[in-house]
Amino acid sequence: MDQIRPQEIESKKQIGTLKGDPVIEIALKGGLHIVCTVAKAVGAGIRYLGAGPHRAVARWLAKKKEPGMQVTELAKSDHIEPQFFQHMVPEYEQLVDRLNARR
Q1: What is the per-residue pLDDT for 103?
Q2: How far apart are CA 31 and CA 6, in angstroms?
Q3: What are the beta bridge partners of residue 24?
Q4: DSSP 8-state assignment for residue 91
């Protein structure tokens, strides 16, 4: 994944904040959900916090990585108990690490 092209994005919205910076959730047409922050500092750019096959997984990983993240856009109907996706956490943590390494 070198770069996300606009035609690959199904939806994009701000779901919260982290240290005053916006936290954005991006849903791709292929089903991948990404949570990232866009730092206001010049040259800081995008920092990926979570990714997964469902928004609940991406948000859970983001919150694990950044416990101080404030989520203001709730998605209660999309809640999944962590026990049902724990087996895939290492794979998506590695994906987030690879995304951040490419910045």
Answers
A1: 67
A2: 15
A3: 14, 36
A4: H
